Amino acid sequence: MQYERVEQDYFIYIEKNEKVMHSLTQFCIDNKIQNGKVSGIGAVKETEIGAYDTLEKIYIRKEAPGVLELISFEGNITLKDSQPFVHAHVVLSNHDMNTLGGHLFETTVAAVGEFFLRKFEGKAFRKLNEDVGLPCICLDNKFSMQ
Amino acid sequence: MQYERVEQDYFIYIEKNEKVMHSLTQFCIDNKIQNGKVSGIGAVKETEIGAYDTLEKIYIRKEAPGVLELISFEGNITLKDSQPFVHAHVVLSNHDMNTLGGHLFETTVAAVGEFFLRKFEGKAFRKLNEDVGLPCICLDNKFSMQ
Amino acid sequence: MQYERVEQDYFIYIEKNEKVMHSLTQFCIDNKIQNGKVSGIGAVKETEIGAYDTLEKIYIRKEAPGVLELISFEGNITLKDSQPFVHAHVVLSNHDMNTLGGHLFETTVAAVGEFFLRKFEGKAFRKLNEDVGLPCICLDNKFSMQ
Question: Which residue among A16, A22, A27 sits closest to C131, beta carbon to beta carbon?
Answer without folding.
Answer: A16
